[in-house]
Amino acid sequence: MVYQASPARYESMEYRRCGRSGLKLPAISLGLWHNFGDTTVLNTSRQLLQRAFDSGITHFDLANNYGPPPGCAEENFGRILREDFLRYRDELIISSKAGYTMWEGPYGDWGSRKYLISSLDQSLKRMGLEYVDIFYHHRPDPETPLEETMRALDSVVRQGKALYVGVSNYPAELAAQAIDILNSLGTPCLIHQPRYSMFERWVEGGLLDVLQEKGVGSIAFSPLAGGQLTDRYLEGIPSDSRAASGSRFLNADQLTEEKLNKVRKLNAIAQRRGQKLVQMALAWVLRGDRVTSVLIGASKVSQIDDALGMLENRHFTAAELAEIEEILL
Ligand SMILES: NC(=O)c1ccc[n+]([C@@H]2O[C@H](COP(=O)([O-])OP(=O)(O)OC[C@H]3O[C@@H](n4cnc5c(N)ncnc54)[C@H](OP(=O)(O)O)[C@@H]3O)[C@@H](O)[C@H]2O)c1
């Protein structure tokens, strides 16, 4: 059956301006890091994308290396795009990145002009796209001159292969330099993509100030700490969860009793607020309006629905914020 997007898709989502740019992003965006590779049934990935788009989630985030195997998430996304979303292309913000190991030899990693431009060409082929909306440098490269990396980002915009560019995982000072170089080249930095959640708060130590001052947006990845900031692990480790999957990013060792205790206390506050912990954790990242969008992952359609419920209660009292702060200390 041909996919028809819901006519109600723009009724409940909040769209937020990305820094001082002309682009608005949905308050919730969907990342394709997990659950879009060859180990996931294609129909599951399709259902996640459809549910997201039907709910006003217009932004899908990819990278060259998402899979497994690397490249596969872009290929699978490309297929679903062709089959279901082609006529909605202009309603979508699709991003990709390069910066981690992608192919053998000295040109398949880090931040050289050679790597970034070749990698984006490959990503476009895999997804069957003429351009991506946002192209990121995925992580800082300690060896390549920053100027070269930023010039490569400027080039892909001038070549029409990306509409906007951004950086990811850049510490505050380096981000400030990158933003300045991009401005001087005439291609403003649209966005920074850092990890940010109740359990990972490094961005509060200067990065958010830099971005605000320079008018650059931000999209917080892993806002649920990979699933830790949910009720997923309160009764043990379910067999279909990320922590049970052998992931090196989330495993049983990280789910310490101390952490689970914090999760239990946070869960109690969320219940008092009449929402799920997932919803409170996402609303917390968006508090203060310095983060443009939260970039979630999902293995089930119901997880997207849970995240959307956040939009019904984004407000915190000062007392609630103080109580949360106490727990996170
Ligand atoms: N720039 C970078 O370096 C970088 C790095 C990492 C990620 N990212 C981006 O950020 C995106 C999101 O990362 P993430 O997947 O780590 O984000 P996350 O939102 O912190 O974690 C998502 C996981 O949490 C669990 N979950 C979600 N909703 C739930 C619910 N309602 N109840 C119970 N469990 C729930 C699911 O895991 P289960 O599998 O257990 O169901 C889901 O896959 C990625 O797809 C990628 O686009 C970027």
From TrEMBL:
A UniProt-annotated Pfam family: Aldo_ket_red
NADP listed as a keyword: yes
Gene Ontology biological-process annotations: methylglyoxal catabolic process
Any one Gene Ontology molecular-function term assigned to this protein's record: oxidoreductase activity
Domain of life: Bacteria
Coiled-coil region list: none
Keywords: NADP, Oxidoreductase
Annotated InterPro entries: K_chnl_volt-dep_bsu_KCNAB-rel (IPR005399), NAD(P)_OxRdtase_dom_sf (IPR036812), NADP_OxRdtase_dom (IPR023210)
Domain NADP-dependent oxidoreductase: 28-327
Family: Belongs to the shaker potassium channel beta subunit family.
Name the UniProt record assigns to this protein: L-glyceraldehyde 3-phosphate reductase
Species the sequence originates in: Buttiauxella warmboldiae
Lineage: Bacteria, Pseudomonadati, Pseudomonadota, Gammaproteobacteria, Enterobacterales
